[in-house]
Fold this protein.
Amino acid sequence: MKKLLIAYFATATAALAHPGHDAAVVEGQAHWLTQPDHIVVVGLSAALVSLAGIRWSVRRMRALRE
């Protein structure tokens, strides 16, 4: 739950970081994929989620071996 709150606040502050998110209401999810600076955020988020999944998998495999 703690990590979920961190992720929520990180995305909420990113939305407030710069103006122009009124367009997101009209464009919906496409707004995140059409803005170059947002694509970087989406890519970094995907990388972090992937790394967290790999880390969790490795820990689980080590725990099952013991």
